[in-house]
Amino acid sequence: MSPSSLRRIATTTFVLLAATCRPADEAPPAAEASPPASPSTPTVIQFDPPFDGEPIATKAADHGIRIEEIVAGDGDEAQTGALVRYHYTGYLTDGRKFHATRERGRRRPHQLTVGDERGLPGLHVALKGMRAGTKARVYLPADQAYGRNRYKIVQPHSPIVLALEVISVEPPLAAPQPASAYTGQPQWTQSRGDGVEVTEYREGTGAPAQDGDHVTFHYIGQLDDGTVFDSSHQGEPFKITMGAQGVMPGLRPGLDGAKVGSLRKLVLAPKQGLNGRLFKDVPKDATLTLLVEVARVRPSDG
Question: What class, spelled out in words, does domain 57-170 have in CATH?
Fold first, then answer.
């Protein structure tokens, strides 16, 4: 059974709108390989404050990347698997600006999971070890930036410079709990709406999920006889936006009020689960049980 099969429901049989917490204007996919080029120190870039200041530390990172720290962060440190949110302004080495996440009414920072190979390869290298609150100038050689790709005014094989601010760092996700964690005496059981039964075995901590929040969770999907038809445990967790049209209608009421670390068993009637659609060998009128562990809850404006 391949992981992330709920995603295949979304792409092959479901209309999945806004079921990801990844911002729509995030940087393009990782660049193809290109001949390495050392980023020469630009002399004509007019950085905005505080990035125009003298660095308090300079680091030569792997792959020819140079980092000039302007403000030291004191928050959580980004390690492999951490979810990092950041703002940046991007420059060519001749001083021209090609993108800024705070311009044109944009407020929401970009984000990436360190080490997952999405986005600019050099950004993963630069962010690893940075702390929330860090502000730095980051010099990326062409092969660590857009490589052979063209992006706005960035030509193929061009080094770039980023004025980078780390907004927040969320630690890597813990390994999900096995099915045996959803046994024993529950904390409570509720019937929510028509055909959704929710049983909570662990409350979790932090702010409760509500409409508009982005929720990341692991799951085990079972049929009435206990047969596992799908699981995220060998792959990436699934993500939804609360209140948006998604894969299964019952997920929204099932996850309402859940917190990071919550363990819930959701029993979904057919119309709250597959809702008449086909998935693998699961009967389209099957009642489904989802064993859900909430990994992250991010507010809609986060």
Answer: alpha beta
